[in-house]
Amino acid sequence: MASGKILSSEKGTAITMRIAAHPQLYSPDGPAPPELKGGRCRSCGYVFFPPHRYGCEVCGAPPDGLEPVSLAGRGVLRSFATVHFHQGAGIEAPFTVGSIVLDEGPAIHAVLTCRTDEGLRSGDRVRSILVTQGQDGSGNEIVELRFEKIGER
Ligand SMILES: [Zn+2]
């Protein structure tokens, strides 16, 4: 029963919300495809993701020389690997992890929406997408960041 950003339960009593599994990286209620919360150095323009406050790793500018920047969540798949056995919680094997170079420059690792690497090629265009990972104890929908293939190289 999704209606916009707020999801109401079947009973109509409780109001539940979308919650980001990693709110420091993306907003659960942003535009689609979701923007990523990156950072940029005001001195040299270096763009990075995930955000941090250690100072610029390129020019050495101090932490107060960094500013938040929204990344479009689009990039190119460089390499990928399918995980066939995984004991951790939150994701069921098989799943495929990609090394992605975002259009703004940062290289990241992210889980892809396709479970196996069938049909994937280095150079494919990908974009960010939020998928429902489960619910918390209050019935809120937990969304996690994934990347999906949108085109060939
Ligand atoms: Zn810098």
Explain what you see.
This protein has 153 residues and is mainly beta. It has 2 domains: 4-35 and 72-149, no CATH class; 36-71, Single Sheet (Rubrerythrin, domain 2). Helix content is 0%, strand content 46%. It is built from no helices and 11 strands. The chain has an 8-stranded mixed sheet with strand order 1-2-3-11-10-7-8-9, with no helix packed on it. A 3-stranded antiparallel sheet has the order 5-4-6, with no helix packed on it. The protein is globular and about 40 Å long. The model has no long low-confidence stretch (mean pLDDT 89). The structure holds zinc ion.
Helices and strands, with pairings:
Blueprint: E1 2-3, E2 6-8, E3 15-20, E4 36-41, E5 47-48, E6 66-71, E7 74-83, E8 95-102, E9 107-111, E10 125-135, E11 141-151
Parallel strand pairs: 3-11
Antiparallel strand pairs: 1-2, 2-3, 4-5, 4-6, 7-8, 7-10, 8-9, 10-11
This protein binds zinc ion.
Zinc ion binds next to loops.
